[in-house]
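Q: Structure tokens for this one, please.
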Amino acid sequence: MAGEARHRFDIGFEELETFLAVVDLGSFNRAAQQLNLSQPSVSNRVKRLEEKLRVRLLHRSTRKIELTAEGQRLHEEAAETLRGLRALCREFGAQATARQRQVDVAAGMMVSTLVLPPVARRFGELHPSVELRIRNLLPEQAVALVAEGRCDMAIVGFGSQPATMPFELLASDTCAVVTPKGHPLVRRGAVPFEELLRHRLLTPDVYVPVQQAVLAEAERRKLTPKFAAEAREVGNVMTCLAMVAAGLGVCLHPRSLIPAELRPALDVVPLLDWTVERKFGLVRSAERELPLAARQFRDLVHAMLGEGRWMRQSVPEQS
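A: Here is the predicted structure, written as tokens:
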């Protein structure tokens, strides 16, 4: 209630531990030996505890130590509390030890499907005692887990992360027009932006960077894109590419992120007079240092995917 003085809890762990040792061992001297303290130090701690609580806890005599009623109550509560705290400390310690042998990585479907498996295999060969967990999520969800401390890092497209989170560039890839096999656009060799907008664009709403880029360029040219309704609510790009293969429209997509099983049903054509570049990189928290195992995985990601090595999976242009 307002105006009431709040009781300040200033009892230390060491004071309670000392009090319990004196009671359980029945002697200030034995408690001092167990705690590796002098007997006066033990006596002072118990006295300080009594002064803070403003009650007498022990009846002292030359032969034995007896608890007062207040001391009995404190002993019961303190013993249970310290047992719980010790168990919790052991649990935290075990978690910290396990955390050093675990790496949690979040990524979008295409990155986790096409890019990370070779890295995961190599990491397992180099660090067999470390458990690697890869979570397949939407980019915004992946970044959120990193921000919450539930994932060590995320590999996503640039723009998915807030400005406060470091973005370590791995690769840049130019988006191309992906069409069903044998589509009329393939014969052009390269597609003008205005011609692209005459076709139904399969662009999910979650594919924000590409959708925004198309809208901005269309507005600049005073054109209106035709976004296909079928793809607006799609939650992953794999489904979008399957829709293209089924003939529902065309899409803009990074060349390096087209799965091999869909390539026979697709053609890929470059844009003629406009460019959409997608940057992919590693996002981590600026507030937390990566554990050793996570740093080792991060270094391997850069070694295997950085400096253009990501592009080895790109689809050749159609002639």
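A few notes: DSSP finds eleven helices and eleven strands in the chain. The chain has three domains: 13-98, 102-170+280-313, 173-278.
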